[in-house]
Write a structure and sequence with these properties.
By secondary structure, the protein is α/β, with parallel strands linked by helices. Helix content is 40%, strand content 14%. The strands form 3 sheets. Strands 2-9-8-7-6-3-4-5 form an 8-stranded mixed β-sheet, sandwiched between helices. A 4-stranded antiparallel β-sheet has the order 10-11-14-13, covered by helices on one side.
């Protein structure tokens, strides 16, 4: 297609082939440390709930769905978030087709082409093309062991204001078990971030897919539970907790915001069959047992990968996340993570170079890798890390 007919926002997107591949596309010998696929060991048996949905609720699940989502599911989600200290009603919840659909709708609601948004450096890389597709400009703010540097953000906003530039439209962050770093935003910084956003009149988009995938420690308050002025839009999903193929997520925000987001949906309503299936599963005793199993299995996977890394790659620095799906490896600055990722793929280990997790507004560091421990079995994790260790040692010899 002639690029001259494309919208400006489309020109910022890659014209290359799709980057993500799926487990069924690979030889069984390939170890998958790249995308956050669910472990086959934790995918629940939903047969009973599917049968119930297609028999007892056939007239409901084979029709169009309410555009805001099933009322009972929205009520369950409101109560689910209220367990974390929120004060939500069903009117403040919108069911969407996975968290990325929620992010896309929020961009449609808030962004004009050329608007600036605040993101962490590094950030969730799949969100980058979503934001670019809406013409967003990025203000990258670094992190440390407590998450987003709110003090650095405040100073950057002050300088921006002094220069006469408009405030960013929103601040995007993954506060619990951040993707890709695994860092959890500290309680003090959560409070400071919400207060700063309210003071500056900037929305906060809280993307929180891993919150219940916690292995140890006490849960910290969600940003939404700290929100007193309606500045936080919370994006949740069942992709990491139940199964990614269900494509059920939600946005929690003020009712007027939810109403506008609902009107921007163009899908005829999120799949009513899957909504009913998820609702009945979440209402059942099976759900709590499933969450415990997810936590147990992924904790074992994390610990297995950490042990393998200590054995095979002691030179790599890695923090221990208290939950989530990922480990963020940092090497000596002279190590080329892009080359490591290419060599690893050639050796049958798929992972993602750390450079892909930066929006690219400055010098992009090349000495990181992100490894997902969710999909591979413990035996595959050990084999994959051993291969990666050999590749790193070969590069060091060159």
């Amino acid at each position: 297609m002639n690029p001259s007919i494309l919208a400006r926002r489309a020109l910022a997107l890659s014209a290359g082939p799709a980057g993500r591949h799926f487990p069924f596309e690979f030889d069984p010998e390939v170890v998958l440390f790249d995308s956050g696929f669910a472990s086959p060991a934790v995918l629940p048996d939903l047969t009973h709930f599917a049968q119930e949905a297609l028999s007892r609720h056939r007239d409901e699940v084979l029709q169009y769905a309410p555009s805001q989502g099933h009322p009972e599911l929205r009520q369950w989600l409101a109560e689910y978030m209220n367990e974390d200290g929120c004060n939500l009603s069903a009117a403040q919840v919108l069911v969407v087709n996975g968290a990325k659909n929620g992010l896309d709708l929020i961009c449609r609601l808030l962004l004009e082409e050329g608007d600036t948004i605040v993101v962490t450096a590094p950030m969730y890389f799949t969100a980058i093309p979503i934001f670019r597709g809406h013409g967003a400009q990025f203000m990258e703010i670094g992190q440390d062991g407590e998450g987003l540097r709110v003090d650095v953000l405040e100073e950057a906003l002050r300088r921006r204001e002094q220069a006469g530039r408009p405030a960013p439209k929103f601040i995007y962050t993954v506060p619990d078990f951040h993707n890709p770093t695994g860092v959890t935003l500290s309680r003090a910084r959560r409070v400071a971030l919400v207060e700063l956003a309210a003071r500056r009149g900037i929305a906060v988009v809280e993307d929180n897919p891993y919150r219940r995938v916690r292995f140890e420690g006490e849960a910290l308050p969600t940003l939404k539970s700290l929100d007193r002025g309606g500045w936080v839009l919370h994006v949740g999903t069942f992709s990491k907790l139940i199964a990614p193929g269900l494509r059920i997520g939600w946005v929690a925000a003020d009712a007027d915001v939810v109403s506008r987001l609902r009107q921007m949906k163009a899908d005829g309503g999120t799949n009513p069959f899957v909504q009913r299936l998820v609702l009945e599963f979440c209402r059942s005793p099976d759900f709590a047992a499933h969450v415990r199993r997810v936590q147990t299995v992924y904790r074992e996977h994390r610990d297995c990968m950490l042990a393998a890394l200590r054995q095979e790659l002691p030179q790599a620095s890695v923090d221990v996340p208290a939950g989530g799906y990922y480990l963020w490896l940092e090497f000596d600055p002279r190590v080329d993570g892009d080359a490591l990722a290419r060599d690893a793929a050639a050796a049958g280990v798929n992972l993602i170079a750390g450079s892909r997790f930066f929006a690219g507004m400055g010098d992009v560091p090349r000495n990181h890798l992100r490894l997902s421990f969710s999909y591979a079995s413990p035996a595959q994790i050990e084999a994959g890390v051993a291969r990666l260790g050999r590749i790193v040692r070969q590069q060091e010899v060159r």
